[in-house]
Amino acid sequence: xxxxxxxxxxxxxxxxxxxxxxxxxxxxxxxxxxxxxxxxxxxxxxxxxxxxxxxxxxxxxxxxxxxxxxxxxxxxxxxxxxxxxxxxxxxxxxxxxxxxxxxxxxxxxxxxxxxxxxxxxxxxxxxxxxxxxxxxxxxxxxxxxxxxxxxxxxxxxxxxxxxxxxxxxxxxxxxxxxxxxxxxxxxxxxxxxxxxxxxxxxxxxxxxxxxxxx
Length: 214
What we know:
- This protein is α+β, with helices and mostly antiparallel strands.
- The chain contains three helices and eight strands, in the order αββββαβββαβ.
- It folds into two domains: 32 residues; 130 residues, Mago nashi protein (2-Layer Sandwich).
- α2 packs antiparallel against α3.
- The protein is elongated, with a radius of gyration of 42 Å.
């Protein structure tokens, strides 16, 4: 440590005084200069990654799809609603006899595209026929059913009346993998249900049926 004392001469004494003062304040100066550096180092050490759930050992991260399910597509939430046996009966239409020349037949469409037709009376095809329809046809069946609110309709028509025995009766079935419903229509059915029945009639006429080989 340097000692400050009396130095002969005015200029020399002034220089010695300044030197002593600078020497005395040097530790404080170094401390002030080093404080910002120490603060930055401390902040860097205390910074942590954004909080998030860490997967337990052996568990892989799974991406979650938040998009809404497409009509007719089974999701994990559907597994307890209906059996997931494939192929399942997707839609069917059955028309019964009347006291006239009403067509008597049944057509069934399955989720894998398989279709079955059985004609009995007053129809071009008699017996059992098989065919396959495209995925777009399967999706169109579901879209038409959703458009008319099929699952919200009554189970029987007329809702508040008695069936008429000599009228033909149609039975329509739908199973979208989440729920299923059967509607029996004797008469006074809403326009939406009638249009859906006619749509299935048209599909039955357009399909390229092949007779079932025993």
